[in-house]
Write a structure and sequence with these properties.
The chain is α/β, with parallel strands linked by helices. 41% of the residues lie in helices and 17% in strands. It folds into two domains: 2-172 and 212-238, Rossmann fold, CATH 3.40.50.720; 173-210 and 242-276 and 293-308, UDP-galactose 4-epimerase, domain 1, CATH 3.90.25. The structure holds nicotinamide-adenine-dinucleotide and uridine-diphosphate-N-acetylglucosamine (UD1).
Length: 315
């Protein structure tokens, strides 16, 4: 199949591109490489086409869907905190970019559309784990844009016959997650800082917890969804149902490193969610999902990868 992966140069996207290529598909990547990188992608593969362009640009988006059979839409500014500080800028990418893509898909008759929504749409849920029927309570512009994207996708489903698969990802981690900004995913930052012997900042008391999913588990699902014709109006949680708090995470990373970590606790971030944990019954029923990577195993693999990166940069 010909599959478009927006944000294919990013952390999750590049793992998906690898898997799709491995399975014999042809892949086009649309990415402006703002947080992603060409280095995440294979340099030579005749089934891979890279379009360096912006999802905010309707003409470029139109070009990117040409002769495509399925779209996996991952391009976004993935940081919740970035959206708190720049609601207008992140909105243009996270919502208007999605609508640009939906319009292009409609004009070209593309039905299969896989979307990366987020657990952030639930806000601070009253009850854990959260099912997909938990009341929606987006607390940040990022969450509001993900939820609005879901509503637009549902409009295109009802009105134009789109066959969408909407996943609400919980916290994804693994190799290639870029730790270089304070807005990056917490595991990437903690691991890189632990390896470099740098101080680690915890926003809040460290008791906030997340349902961490190893990226290899997620991209199997994305691959399955991109080749399916069974679109649905029902979103699916992608989590493992296990909460890990930041203090537990620091303990594990400390054990991997064999060193005492230098940890400073500061004020919690505005809009930050306290606990997040998925009920994944719907996912397991509909996608035959079984995690192959318990969080400790994924963390060990990820730590080894960051260690390897450091050794390479010293060589
Ligand atoms: P990432 O930052 O590594 O990937 C995002 C990609 O989108 C990058 O390659 C970036 O260059 C690209 N991009 C950003 N703005 C763009 C624009 N204007 N035009 C074209 N490309 C643009 O982040 P990720 O963690 O791989 O996230 C992928 C998707 O999954 C995002 O939609 C994110 O919101 C969603 N998501 C991620 C997580 C997580 O825990 N990582 C959880 C829930 C949802
Ligand atoms: C993450 C994703 C977001 C996704 C959501 C789904 C990233 C950057 N964010 O947001 O795209 O939609 O999961 O649940 O991938 N923290 C520290 N110190 C640090 C960095 C972070 O204490 O140096 C804390 C944060 O304040 C937060 C927790 O760690 O309490 C997790 O932060 P982060 O990794 O940014 O994830 P989410 O905000 O959950």
């Amino acid at each position: 199949m010909n599959i478009l992966v927006t944000g294919g140069g990013g952390f999750i996207g590049s793992h998906l591109v690898d898997l799709l290529l491995l399975n014999g598909h042809s892949v086009r990547v649309l990415d402006n490489f703002s947080t992603g990188s060409r280095n995440n992608l294979p340099s030579q593969n005749e089934r891979l086409e890279i379009l360096e362009a912006d999802i905010r640009d309707p003409k470029a988006v139109e070009q990117s869907v040409h002769e495509v059979e399925a779209i996996v839409h991952l391009a976004a500014i993935a940081s919740v905190q970035a959206s708190v500080e720049d609601p207008v800028g992140t909105h243009a990418v996270n919502l208007v970019g999605t609508v640009n893509l939906l319009e292009a898909a409609r004009r070209h008759g593309i039905k299969r559309f896989v979307f990366a929504s987020s657990a952030a749409v639930y806000g601070n849920a009253q009850q854990l784990p959260v099912t997909e029927d938990t009341p929606l309570a987006p607390l940040t512009p990022y969450a509001a844009d993900k939820l609005a994207s879901e509503y637009y996708i549902d409009f295109y489903r009802r009105q134009h016959g789109l066959q969408p698969v909407v996943f609400r990802f919980f916290n994804i981690f693994g190799p290639r997650q870029d730790p270089s900004s304070p807005y990056s995913g917490v595991i990437s930052i903690f691991m890189q800082r632990a390896i470099n012997g740098q101080p680690i900042t915890v926003y809040g008391d460290g008791e906030q917890s997340r349902d961490f999913v190893f990226v290899a588990d997620l991209v199997e699902l994305l691959k399955q969804a991109s080749v399916t014709t069974n679109g649905s109006e029902l979103p699916m949680n992608v989590g493992n149902g296990q909460g890990t708090d930041l203090n537990q995470l620091l303990k594990l990373i400390g054990d991997f490193s064999g060193k005492e970590l230098d940890v400073e606790y500061v004020a919690r971030r505005p809009g930050d969610i306290k606990h997040s944990q998925a009920d994944n019954c719907r996912l397991r029923q509909r996608m035959k999902y079984e995690s192959r990577y318990p969080v400790e195993v994924g963390l060990q693999k990820t730590y080894e990868w960051y260690q390897g990166q450091e050794l390479n940069s010293l060589a």
